[in-house]
Every structure is written in structure tokens, then in C-alpha cells.
Amino acid sequence: MTKGTITRKSISGKEARSLPGIPEFATPAAERLHRKQRLAAGFRLFSHFGFDEGIAGHITVRDPERTDHFWVNPFGRHFSQIKVSDLVLVNHDGVVVEGDALVNGAAFAIHSRIHAAHADIVAAAHAHSFYGKTWASLGRALDPISQDACALYRNHAVFNNFTGVVVETEVGDRIAQALADNMAVILQNHGLLTMGRTVDAAIYLFLLMERCCQSQLMAEAAGEPIRIPHEVAIKTRDYIASDHSLWYSFQPLYDFIVARQPDLLE
Asked: What secondary structure letter does DSSP report for 53?
């Protein structure tokens, strides 16, 4: 049993069974469908939590076979209506390979450069969420003021060069460079962007980051938050922000939204 793993035996005294891990797939087609289902669920969750702002916002997932291609939401479609069959496949040159919808120019300018620069990244999520864009106006990193916030401690950057709507890939290149080895970035005067080695992780990290922005805004309005010490924050981050922990934290949300909106799988 690995450290921190909860088993059936440790709870009930019966035969031990570890938590499930990130799934592996026999074929690229099976993995592609899995990623697209998670991606569609992510858009429905973004809508559920109020992260839809007009035509802004996008989540992308790399195709498992054509790794210089990514799946993205169709431009102008409300997040609450997106299904698996609506997703559009785009290559890094901006050519729509599958699907008949338009693609948000900012989605291509940002996400194509992130996927090109970070070969280990499977998915990226960006939206103009209310608390995220409010915190982003401060041009500051989040502090480790809670256990959840530790997931982002020394794990996110600040991109402090707002130049308007991102329509040029060179701006996307600068955002990708600013991310460095981090899994998230605060786009000053803009919003939040998260990445993950699974689409599940990228989406869950965005949800968590938005709530951390809300939490710190509230805490600073009330007083001066107490920061968690560096060593404890690092230890906590490594526990709750691992690839598996972020992936696993998304699974209840996936089950929740699919049960409520099963049409997303169509």
C-alpha cells in the first residue's frame, strides 16, 4: 500500500483494495473517446459553476494519436450545450481537421502554443471566471492560506503583460514560456489558465484555483491571512496536486454532471 492510500481493509477490516488509478487504454480510439467525454463534461461543469462569459473561454485536450492536434469547443456554442459530437479537432497550423464549426481565434493562439511548448501536457483550460479575473487584476500570485491553496504554491506563475484580446500566436508563445514548469498561470487583467497531464486534472485545477481566488479575496477583505509555512505548503502541494490526486478529485464531479446531463456524451 502506498503512503496515504485509503484501502477497504483500513475502513472495514476486510480485504484491502487501493484507490483506482488513471486509466490506460488499449487503442488510441478508446483513449480519444475518453478524453472527449471528459472534455465535454468539463464544459458542462464550467457552465454549472458560472464560468461562461459570452464567447470567451476554452478547454482543449491533445489528441492521443495525432499529438500536434487538439480538440476544442466550437466557437459561439454555450458551454451548457456542448456534446462530445460537437467538439472540433484543430492542428497546430490552425486547420480544422474534424468538425464544421468555427474555432475561437484566442483559443488557437493560446492553446496551440501551450500544447506545442509542453509535450507532456494533455489539456489546458481557460475562462474569464468572476473571481479569477478579479484576482488577476491585482497582478499577484496566490498565497498558501489554506490546504487547497497549497496545490498552487510555487505551482503557478503570473503573466503580467496584458495586450488585449489574444489573437497572435506570439502572445501565446509568451504565455507558454511564462508557464515554465508550473501547472497554472494568472493572466493579469484577464483570467486564469490551468494545465494537466489529464483533462480531468486541468479542469479540476481550474475549479480549485477559482475558489482559491475567491477565498483570498474574502480573507484579505476581512484582515491579513496567515500563510502556511513554506515546508508545510510544499509537502501539502505534493500530496494534493499530484497527477493522480487531481485526476481522482475530478471523478465525483464527472459522475455528478453526467448523471444530471447525460446528453453531453452524445
From this structure: B
